Fold this sequence. Notes:
The structure holds 3 protein chains of 3 kinds. By secondary structure, chain B is mostly helical.
Amino acid sequence: MSGVSAGNVFFAVCAIVALVGALMTILAKNPIRCAVGLLSTILGIAGLFLRLNAQFLAAIQLIVYAGAVVVLFVFVIMLLGSDAGEAARGPVKAALSRAVAGVLAFVLAAVALVLIGSVSPAPTRMGPARPEHGSVEAVGSLLFSKGLVPFEIATALLIVAVIGAIAVARSVPGKKKVKAAESPTERMFHGPLHPRDAGRPLTRERLG
Amino acid sequence: MDALRAIFPHDDFALLLVIILVPLLGAFVNGVFGKRLGKEAVALMALSAIGVSFIASAAAFLLLKDAERTQEAARLIWRGWDWVTISGRQDLSQVPIQIAFSIDALSGAMALIVTGVGFLIHLYSVKYMEKDPGFHRFFSYLNLFIFSMLVLILGDSLPVLFVGWEGVGLCSYLLIGFWYDNDYNAFAGKKAFVANRIGDFGLLVAMALLVYYCGALDWTGIDAQSRSLLQAKQVWPIGNDVPWVTWLGQHYSSLSGVAEWVNRPRYASAATLVGLALFLGCAGKSAQIPLYVWLPDAMAGPTPVSALIHAATMVTAGVYLVCRMSGVFVLSPAAMFTVATIGGLTAVLAATIALVQNDIKRVLAYSTVSQLGYMFIGVGVGAFAAGFFHVMTHAFFKACLFLGSGSVIHAMHARIHDTDASQDMRNMGGLKRFMPVTFWTFVAAWAAIVAVPFTSGFFSKDEILFQSFTSFVKAPVEGGKLGEGANAIQLFQWPEWGGKFLYTLGVLAAVMTAFYMTRLVIGIFFGEFKGWTIVKRWKAPKHHHGHAHDEHEHGAPLEGPTPHESPWQMTVPLVVLGALSVVGGFLNPHALSMFGVHTHPLDNWLAPVFTEAKKFVEHVPEFEHLVVPLMLPGIGALVVGGGFAYWMYLMQSGEPAKKLAEQMPRLHALVYDKWRIDELYDETILGAVDSLAEGFAWADRWLVDGLLARFTSFVVAAVGTGLRYVQTGRVQAYAAMMIVGVGGMGWFLIAPHAHAQVMTDHASGSYSVTASPGLGYRYRWDADGDGTWDTESFSDKTNVELKLEPDKSQTVRLQVVNAFGRTAEKAFAFSRPKPDRSRGPATTMNVEQGADGQLRAMPQRPRPAASGTFQLPPGGNMDPEATRRLFQRLQQQRGQAPGQPGQPAPPGGGQPAPAPAPQPAPGGQAP
Amino acid sequence: MNLLGEVIEHYVILASVIFTLGAIGFLVRRNVLIQLMSIELMLNAVNLLLVAYNRVHGADMNGQMFAFFIIAVAAAEAAVGLAIVLAFYRLRQTVLSDEADSLKH
Lengths: 208, 927, 105
């Protein structure tokens, strides 16, 4: 092994962590395990960001993704309790098409890899980076000059998302029993979307 | 008289408008305001309308007589305006259809009959329809009928006559179905109208043929141009042959003879076609075979209607038409013989049916059909005046008979309200002593119809019988051949046995007429009254509701009052008509020639109308002296028939008849059911129409509805149902579909596409190929067509130009590589064709200016040989005379202008087209 | 081996694999929460690719800025998505996406 530097090892470790996390996310039965796998992927990717001289982004990744998004996921899983799992509730609908879809995606990936392999007999090396590459100043100055408008819009987006999340996740006031309305128009505006949903109660007593 | 002549000059004879429009006014007033006016006012309006019309007809008659005496005019005309103009013979002439009325000898006499008898019947109806709630409607319809009939009679051209023709058909429908609550009455009205309509089709065809051949539709025009009808026309096959018959003949040798026979062209003269078509119209209107079936059912209408329309006036419109178009009819002996034969057969057929009928109106209806047959015998053999005379006398005695029977029915209605029972002969009898006026007038009319000597019916019937034996129609063209050469047709020759045949039919019908009429008189007026038990001072019971009490408690005999005589409004017309039936015959007493008396005022009066027609009517000279011998069978018929009936019904009180009926029940039933002709029509013709309708209904249900509507919607719905399953509602499924789509798009983007735009210019030989751009594309060419790439590496060169010599070819190849390093290639082949020397110089055309100033280009045609082979213009054969004259004229033209191309242009083309009129009179425009 | 992590292709391969795993997870798993997590995987893979290419063409920080925005939007989307999952759970007492088929034919 000539010239295996620390950078290479670091890359390998982070890549493996990310891959294993991804596999765990999509394969685990227990949703908590999936969340942990996601967390692992995020950590791995954050490490790779560091390898790529994107310090600022790595920090942001950890703070936002690992610190907020994954936590949010875990909160919801805890909220749902045992219902969060994929207890077999009837036969899996369209298992065949699911499988086909999965195979398709796999094939797509394989093709992509083949293409990548075919086009690069000579790999593109990354040269040395400037010292300010990926620094807070560099990203920040770009963010507040060229990316000012998207930045402000992203702010608005976040506010709207917060409000929206509250609005959607709010519990329905009162426990009204809703019957299926007569006309489709009524159902569209006041009632369940489909007559077969009419019988099911909208709220469960347990939840507030 | 002078004052009248001043007001109404001969060519602007507005008195006709008075005659025609006053009844229309009466109809309008009675129809719109009748309910409010009340019965007396309505009656007054109607009577005065027709009274004025009668007086005006009389005045017109006198004026006409005056004009004839002074030789000024044979026809008094009032012209209105042009209604419509149609193109005439072979697009050459314009035929204006004018609203115009005219009166000549024939229509003058007819108008007098119509208005006179009409007036009497109006008077009669005032009392007869007194209790009817539709009183005003009745008189409105009656006046409307008179109006239509007068339009028919006084019209100056066939279209105006047709307006009146349809109008009387309409009024007949309205009046037959007058009591429309009863389904049967409505059905009878409909039947009359439909049967009439079938005849009207014939009349329309005749009009079209007349426009085509004569180029005119008014009386003067037709008479002037009637010779043009003497052309042969191929009537079979339509086109060249019947295709499937030809095919059969070709493929099956045994059928070739039959196919030959079927496809052989058959010709008829145009005059025959017109005559037969016109006669179809007459058969519809005047109830001849095969369209007589409506007349017996028409008795569902009130009795005055039967008297006016179906005895005196409307049904004689057919005879009037034949007389009016006599100039056309005599040009075709075939048509005339058909008319006479059908008339004779109808006379006999109807008489047989009348022998066993019990409804008195039915007997009279069949009698009418039979007498109409007589009239057609008369006009069919060429004795137009005799036929018309019978129209007149028939109007008198038949109207009298109908009104008399109405009087009887009126008396029966006092107790029996059911229509069928009150008209049944078996419920009558012995009414002689209760209704004397009715009885004697009925007997007078009976005497006329059975032709008791010196009554009107005697003179007219005898005249017809004599003429049927001696008179015939000869061929209008010499030698009896029409056309020339191979296309000549032999015109119909009046058969030797024709006269005897028609005479026999007439005598047979006379015997039967005498029999059933005597039976009728005896049945109504003689014997014991069988209607009800007569109780003096009978009072209607309190709970008398009308119809339901006719069949009283079964077993209890019907009691009723003494049958009463009718009031004066009903008996005066009877007396007048009865008197006319007896003495009216002296207007044309041909039979008196055996006493050496040779006055016939009606013949003289009508002579100017039939002068043209008489040219083709001939009498067998040997039979001229057979007046008396031919009269004897007529009188003998009266004696035999009347005597037989007298014996059977009065002396034996109907016993032999009953026994005969019992011995031959099926024959009796068949004759009683009018030979089941109606049922035959139902099965065959109506059945065929029904099947056709069912076929169309099937097509509508299964093809239009099923295939076009439901099937297409089904297909759409099925496709939708199939496609619906794509919508699973699950996001994952949609995502999977998206991935497939993205994959496809990605493949399309990643794979390189070698496309190029190619520009070819064969004329100059320069071609160019321009490659289409793409993401990261680079190109490599093989422009010289040697199979190797021009350059090793790929470049950005996108355009290649090429120049080729004629008749050389080359292939250019293009190779494309994209950013992923994948390549694709395409080849473009070019070849330049040899120069084209195949086209000759452009053809030359002749440009001519036609007579109407329009330019027409006609390719040059080879000129006809100078010896003058002449090409017939299209439009069928013309007679040789006209052809020769046309050719001479054209030769003259050629001689005068030697430089001009001597082509015979088709008519309507460049040169002023000579419309060949064999007569020197100009082409058939209305004067 | 001595080029591991210094060649752009390795990052491309890694990002593609993670992306594909995320896609497969989204298509195959029924649990809505895990589907959302798979979406996060996909977004992360794209982020990696962006940053890697930004390292190669490092003239300006466009790639990293883009990745920054992706993170922000992903966070917002995760929040709203989980709120929807909660509402869905209240409606159907389940988190299986198979039950969310009201728009079925």
